[in-house]
Amino acid sequence: MTASTFAAPDPNFHIYLAFGQSNMEGQGDIGDQDRSVDERFQLLWSADGGSCNQGASKGKWIKATPPLAHCQGAKLGPADYFGRTMVEKTDSKIKVGIISVAVAGCSIKLFDKDNYKSYVSSQQGQSWMIQRINAYGGNPYGRLIEMAKKAQEDGVIKGIIFHQGETDAGDDGWPSAVKKVYDNIIKDLGLGNDIPFLAGEVLRSGVSSGANNNIAKLPQQSNNFYVISSEGFNQALGDGQNVHFTSQEYRDFGKRYAEKMIEVLGDKLKPAEGSEPPASSDSPASSSSGGTESVASSSSSSGGHHHHHSSSSISGDQPSSAASSSSDAVLANSSSSSAPNAIPAMAKPFVMAGNAQVFDMQGKYLGTVELASGASLKEIVAAKFQRSGKYLLRQDAAVKVISVEKR
User: Fold this and answer.
1) Which domains occur in the chain, in start order?
2) How far apart are CA 47 and CA 45, in angstroms?
3) CA atoms of 404 and 393, how far apart (whole Å)
4) What is d(CA 29, CA 50) in angstroms, rounded to the nearest whole number?
5) CA 6: distance to chain centroid?
6) How far apart are CA 41 and CA 283, in angstroms?
7) CA 282 – CA 272 distance, rounded (Å)
8) N or C: which end of the chain has fewer CB within 10 A?
């Protein structure tokens, strides 16, 4: 695929967001066994400066070797073996991508997009924390969303893993604060209402073990929230803090996260029908490094109340996971506007239920719309995109062109 080519998001590239504090950064020493990783496990580097990891640069996909979070002291953490286990236990056609944003010592307040600035101001004396926050442009939540939108150009966000809470162990408002952050992520990325959120327990024998009382309450906040047990992880890293896990415990913890994610997602992890396995020489980055910027990345992060009512003209919604065969997933048109339409029309009726992917006539992915009986396709597309023109809709193998005239 050449740099000037645009490709629709690959339904078989499954992306996970990982965020939290020091245990999500990873504090375990990186061993020889951790330095080699399957090409199917990719990392979208999210920090400024990547000299510690393959010379990574922000917003570029690389092979997911540790550290995943940043170069300010991150090491091996649960996200490493979460991703490796997802690759190992899913179909060989599935690629796994991760985005990791984590700041040691931070409160959940750092990820509250409305109030993070006052929290950052209150931490100015903690130079080690400010250094990490600055690696994410001073706004870790904003960076997480920015990178996730970029990742939506290439694949489909399937779930979120989280490890945080030690700093907030005494705060009864923490579970609802976590739910607020989750709700913002779902809204800002136009995700569905079924995205699993997996929160790991803290070290049971550690000084912050009381945080597990808060973590146990998370499933009361949402049916999508699950707790990953830290039972049996009692070694504690010998760093004098009595908060962190050992490298082997991080590996085992990551596997526990993956096993729960596999259980929760079930059939949603099956490859989209007819899709080809990725060419081994191609990293996911090859489809997004070119001259055509995805429209999704320009969408406003402030969004409407719910993704299919968004008033922004273009949305960064995820494509339907039921997307499409490889024959029409090669929506790859060159970026010139004179390119012929490469999407074959297939005679199959639309069902007015579920979602449809929306493209412009050059094959550029614009977002998804929710189909509802009682409304016409034209009305649904016009309400979502607020612009006259021709749109191509795809629902599984059914393709339809709609002309919209805004009065």
Assistant:
1) 5-269 (3.40.50.1110), 299-404 (no CATH)
2) 6
3) 12
4) 18
5) 20
6) 10
7) 19
8) C
Beta strands 197-200 and 333-334: pairing type? Answer: unpaired
**Three-state DSSP state, 131:** helix
Q: Which residues of 118-139 are buried (b: 16+ CB within 10 A; e: fewer)?
A: ebbeebeeeeebeebbbbbeeb
Residues 6+ apart with CB under 8 A from 161: 16, 17, 18, 24, 78, 79, 82, 198, 200, 257, 261
Partners of 199 in the β-ladder = 162, 227
Residuewise pLDDT in 10s, the chain (407 residues): 444 455 689 999 999 999 999 999 999 999 999 999 999 999 999 999 999 999 999 999 999 999 999 999 999 999 999 999 999 999 999 999 999 999 999 999 999 999 999 999 999 999 999 999 999 999 999 999 999 999 999 999 999 999 999 999 999 999 999 999 999 999 999 999 999 999 999 999 999 999 999 999 999 999 999 999 999 998 889 898 999 999 999 999 999 999 999 999 999 999 987 544 444 333 444 333 333 333 333 333 333 333 333 333 223 333 333 333 333 333 333 333 333 333 444 445 677 888 888 887 667 788 888 887 778 888 888 888 887 888 888 887 778 888 888 66
Quick one: 276 exposed, middle or buried, by C-beta within 10 A (0-12, 13-18, 19+)?
A: middle
Q: Is 111 in contact with 181 (CB distance < 8 Å)?
A: yes
Listed in sequence order, the DSSP H helices in 36-173 are 78-89, 116-122, 127-135, 140-151
Global confidence as pTM: 0.70
The residue whose two tokens read 């415990």 is 249
Cα separation, 38 vs 139, in Å, equals 31
DSSP 247-260: HHHHHHHHHHHHHH
CB contact at 8 A, 10 and 284? yes
SS3 317: coil
H or E stretch covering 400: strand 398-404
Place of tokens 């000084």: 207
The alpha carbon of 217 is separated from its chain's Cα centroid by a whole number of angstroms, namely 24
Q: Would you list the DSSP string of 80-111?
A: HHHHHHHHHHS-TT-EEEEEEEE-TT--GGGG
